[in-house]
Amino acid sequence: MNAAPLPIRIGRWLCVLVLLGIMVSPPLAGLGQAGLIVLLLASREFRARLARVVRQPLAVAALCFLGVIALGVAWSEAGPREGLSTLWGWRKLLMLPVGMALFEAPAARASALRVLVLLGTLAALAAGASWIGRFTYPVPEAIPGILLRNHSTQGAVFAVAAAGAAWLAVAASGRARLAWAGAGVLLLAGLMLFTPGRSGYVVVLVLTAVSVVGWAVDRGLGLWKGLVGGALLGGAMLAALLAVPASRDRIHQAFSELAGWRQQTEANAELTSMGIRVVMWGNTLPIIAQRPLLGWGTGAFETAYARQVAGRTGLQGLVTRDPHNQYFAIAAEQGLLGLLAFAAMLACALRQRSPWRWKVLGLAVLAAWCTTALANSHFATFAEGTLLWLALGVTLGAEPGRDADTG
Questions:
Q1: How does pLDDT run across 189-205, given as a tens digit for each residue?
Q2: At the N or C end, where does the chain have fewer CB atoms within 10 A?
Q3: Domain spans, the chain
């Protein structure tokens, strides 16, 4: 990270601080983001780079989607205060153009990926020591084997870092290849053995399959061979998850809870993670149907949901701020307008003219988040959302001096 002008190097290290904050401390992430704002005000070079990247399709679409969220404050059923609070929470999306501006050089992308893998590997070692020694760290989810705040965040970080280690191993040779491959194995072991985050399992499966397809196309093997290879290696990864007792039990628990979701509607039912999601989805659909075009407004999901379940008892009457489905959350708050803007943003990611190797990795991460979004709101949550937008910024930006639209 040393060849660029000083302000750009500072910005990259501030992004590392944001990444570290995602893992262990939100105030650190906030400090890094505040530093980026100061840098924007102070550095003409940084402003020039941002002005250049915001003309790229993905950046334009992302800012349009953020604009729709901002417009939704005007008609928020929860009022302007809640609407503005939710809009402020979406500031993490701005890490996308920031990442595109700071990491457009190939060497900078590679350095960022190495930092992620190294931080993830150190975290896996520390979490593994906690799991083996049966002690806990002072984090919100204080159980042995968890270091990165909670199992969901840890699973996402370990999965993306493992994919990054695989990409680094493929590009390296000799001892470096062995070192990166070893880091990937360690990260996968941490994910399977002591990180009970089912989202992490989904992420690693999708990353594996999509990465293999992209690698096959890059090597001239063709799309069909890539699809077969992706299915085979993805199946092998699933077999590994099912072979490890810890991950197998969590997967089995998820399907058992989904199958028994109707029990959540009974009096004095015990809440289950997946079962209550089905109940929430059923309650959310009428909310969407009542205001399909513009939704209830930014930050108004809890207000609308409370009205929908008013008078119900037990878990049926439990009020939530999040339906645990990103698509439902957007449809409920910003309606069809928001869904179209979100879909346009995803489509524009495909139009990015970033180097193929990096584009495949970025699209694999995006595909993984699109999959977990069926049962979570990971585009909007603090840790997972910030990780996603920063990762997309690093991997999907156009090369310096290359027009994003014309290639």
A1: 999 999 998 999 999 99
A2: C
A3: 6-257+324-396
